[in-house]
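Sequence, please.
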């Protein structure tokens, strides 16, 4: 199971590697470690080291250090679970929205529920550090795999061909983290493999990074493997195109330039690819065997988890345990964390909370009451929607390999999202996007969910926004969606505890971005703060 993670990853302290993105703060240092302290050239004496290093970068989306689930972290002086990539990204995309709320009172965590975060929020800082740690790893891989470096080591033509493809995948992974960076923070510290090690990175705005990413994703296409011909969990041509489509569809937010026509062209390429909507019950997409062939059809880019090989306190360990109360046996885990709930406005998007109609409503029946105590740890028991979307049970009803750390993979990109991206463009009237085709795509998803089918007149922007919530909730999309649809800031749509008011209130446009952590600005004079912070 989980091919990319079956590689034994032995990492090391690269000479000079950490100087570019290290020591994010005095109390949160980011660096790779290995007790053997190999020099880079000694490490590369083994030709398999290139794949091992690439695997480390992929694994950076899933694990938190050199010894899972904890004990030898990449980011120090923060709980390793809090510093995990997907957990950090998920919290920033979901907790400030109507889809989710967290019950725990860890310092600065409740601020994400209520739009009261500051430039010193430790969870904002943790993800910022994690994302740019990924960038630093990618840059170092690219420095160590140039044609000149490979020639100097006497690598064979076969190794050179493999490394050429590996470099394209690593450039994608770097692009993914930069995409997350501009989405959440706007401007970012920017460096590539061509920048001198030891020099603090310059700040670049969204437009610069957007243009860079578009060029990168187009440039790597020729070296990536064709759709569904790579190992499961590794990127291919269609995965890179999906990131490109995401950039184009959010271009108006990022660059103030509408690129919907470009988005549509790429979306059509993705839909025409060998990826297909999985013909399995919706719940199977989030079970412990969601890496089986029937589900792989839909998974364009999953982040792989394995209960024995990729242990962390983030990722799907977090997504299965944190929403769970005392029904842990039903989810195949050894205990619930009583932490995450949905808000009542999200519950209202589903007309029938029992799930008798729309099978995507994987909730505890009868829940969805108001959350009256936003910062108290006991509100989990008294209110909120109890969501059971993620599970550590297989489609056959068996418990997975480890009851603490699930085998369930996380779909960073899946085809259902692309179908709804098409529908969004059709609802906006983009030339070439047909509401008839959009209706058909939406109905494919709704038939799988046992929900009623829709007509072309239903394909409106508000319907598509709601349908995206129904299909993609708790997959890390909601904040971005609400911003793109103009429903996040201001008062056009309020939800409980938006703006730190129980019934919800307008919030300032500044909350469309998170602050650059003040500790980063203190250590890098090239960085500036986002407006309002």
């Amino acid at each position: 199971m989980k091919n990319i993670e079956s590689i034994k990853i032995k990492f090391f302290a690269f000479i000079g590697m950490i100087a570019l993105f290290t020591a994010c703060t005095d109390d949160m240092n980011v660096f790779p470690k290995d007790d053997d302290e190999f020099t880079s050239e000694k490490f590369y004496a083994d030709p398999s080291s290139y794949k091992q290093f690439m695997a480390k970068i992929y694994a950076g989306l899933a694990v938190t250090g050199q010894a899972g689930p904890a004990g030898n972290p990449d980011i120090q002086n923060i709980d390793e679970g809090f510093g995990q990539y997907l957990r950090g990204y998920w919290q920033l995309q979901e907790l400030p929205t109507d889809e989710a709320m967290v019950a725990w009172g860890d310092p600065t965590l409740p601020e994400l529920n209520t739009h009261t975060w500051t430039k010193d929020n430790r969870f904002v800082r943790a993800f910022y550090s994690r994302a740019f740690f990924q960038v630093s790893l990618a840059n170092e891989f690219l420095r160590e795999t140039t044609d000149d470096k490979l020639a100097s080591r006497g690598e064979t033509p076969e190794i050179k061909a493999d490394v050429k493809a590996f470099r394209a995948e690593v450039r994608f992974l770097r692009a993914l983290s930069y995409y997350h960076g501009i989405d959440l923070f706007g401007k970012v510290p920017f460096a590539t493999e061509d920048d001198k090690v030891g020099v603090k990175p310059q700040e670049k705005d969204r437009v610069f990074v957007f243009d860079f990413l578009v060029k990168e994703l187009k440039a790597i296409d020729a070296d990536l493997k064709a759709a569904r011909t790579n190992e499961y969990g590794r990127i291919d041509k269609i995965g890179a195109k999906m990131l490109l489509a995401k950039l184009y569809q959010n271009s108006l937010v990022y660059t103030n330039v509408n690129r919907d026509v470009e988005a549509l062209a790429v979306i059509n390429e993705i839909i025409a690819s060998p990826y297909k909507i999985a013909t399995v019950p919706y719940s199977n997409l989030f079970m412990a065997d969601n890496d089986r062939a029937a589900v792989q059809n839909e998974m364009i880019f999953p982040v792989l988890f394995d209960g024995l090989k990729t242990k962390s306190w983030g990722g799907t360990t977090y997504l299965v345990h944190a929403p769970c109360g005392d029904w842990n046996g039903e989810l195949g885990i050894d205990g619930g964390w009583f932490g995450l709930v949905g808000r009542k406005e999200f519950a209202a998007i589903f007309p029938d909370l029992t799930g008798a109609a729309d099978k995507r409503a994987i909730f505890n029946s009868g829940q969805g009451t108001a959350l009256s105590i936003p910062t108290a740890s006991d509100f989990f028991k008294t209110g909120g929607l109890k969501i059971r979307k993620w599970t550590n049970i297989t489609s056959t009803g068996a418990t997975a390999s480890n009851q603490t750390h699930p085998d369930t993979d996380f779909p960073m990109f899946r085809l259902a999202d692309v179908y709804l991206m098409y529908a969004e463009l059709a609802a906006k009237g983009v030339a070439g996007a047909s509401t008839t085709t959009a209706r058909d795509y939406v109905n494919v998803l709704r038939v799988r969910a046992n929900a009623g089918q829709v007509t072309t007149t239903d394909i409106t922007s508000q319907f598509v926004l709601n349908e995206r919530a129904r299909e993609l909730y708790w997959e890390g999309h909601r904040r971005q969606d609400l911003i793109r649809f103009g429903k996040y800031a201001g008062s056009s749509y309020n939800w409980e505890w938006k703006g730190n008011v129980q019934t919800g209130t307008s919030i300032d446009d500044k909350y469309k971005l998170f602050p650059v952590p003040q500790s980063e600005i203190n250590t890098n004079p090239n960085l500036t703060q986002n407006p309002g912070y």
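The CA atoms of residues 255 and 363 lie 38 Å apart.
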